[in-house]
Amino acid sequence: MKKLLGALSVAATGLCLTTPASAQTEVTFYFPVAVGGPITKTIDGYAADFNKENPDIKVTPVYAGTYQETIVKALTAHKSGTPPTAAILLSTDTFTLIDEDAVVPIDNFATSDADRKWLDGFFPAFMANGQIGGKTWGVPFQRSTVVMYWNKEAFKQAGLDPEKAPANWDEMVSMGKKLTRRDANGNVTQWGIQVPSSGFPYWLFQCFTTPNDVLLANSEGNQVTFDDVKVIESLQYWMDLSQKYKIHPPGVVQWGTTPRDFMEGKAAMIWTTTGNLTNIRNNAPFDFGVAMIPANLRNGSPTGGGNFYIFKQASEAEQKAAFEFSKWLTQPERAAQWSIDTGYVAVSPAAYETEALKTYAAEFPPALVARDQLEYSVAEFSTHDNQRVTKALNDGLQAALTGSKTAQQAMQDAQAEANRILRTYR
User: Does the record bear Secreted in its keywords (predicted)?
Assistant: First the structure.
């Protein structure tokens, strides 16, 4: 019996020796797919590479739809007690995520000098939406600004200098008149300028308000300025492009079809995210240019895009693993390649010093326009209860652009609704 017990003991010891010392830490990573292109393949590749380099961590991407769909799914999962470990969500979701007690500050994990140096290495303009109350709640990954694309062939046909985009509001109108083409029946075959007003109307509207030197909200996210005279002037100018100057499509212009309209020659100039740059470069059948948003009183565009957030209900081990993944994703070489592959802005100055991005920019200078515009950029519009406040603004913008309200009435109504929503946050 003693021999049998001894043998069993030795066998048991042997089994213990072959049991793994620790299991993998699982990181569920929600990622929004909102812009065309093979982004999912890139993210799958990133996860596979990270997992290979970090065998004790397993990152699993979950493609959750648009940005709006992704935050709804993330917050629903949070409230049910099964949130993702991390997610790429809009930088403008920061107030909402804080108010829902859904995320933890990134500063909690940046404890070493190297970590703090990494955290200080991003473009300041990209940190504006993620740093609130002295804490960093999200770090930039998929970030952008709005830029202007113009069709150089259409400029030549209109007798314009194909190498010169409009630099200000007056030039955009004068050039737009020459670029708008009509057939014998008076039907427009090519619009001079097209600015989308679905999907993200408030964001494109900031491309009018920022050059007009007015902000739509305070940094505390509890007060908006929709009824400011300069805001109303900005909306009136957007309306005038269609209703007065007849160089812009009437009504609501679709976000998703605007790049295609440009590539099909239906619009000579468009405003859209720099995240469409690679798509347009690969598919436009003509030479095109990229420029900063035209100025009025100043230059400027809002920043945009997504930040990396870590969820509060994840375990400490999962949170630390997600932090390691956030650092890995945003290293200069990887940020540079992401910019090259997608058109998004690389999130740090160091990325633009990599050989890959320096070579790419030398071959394709438009890749630097969005980066250079960061000098003049402002934070993307964001408040507490952001989705409801943004809806009030979007509804007002679309009412004005469709002609059902004046610019003044639309913005006064939006202001009243925003005041009602934000009253409890003051």
Answer: no
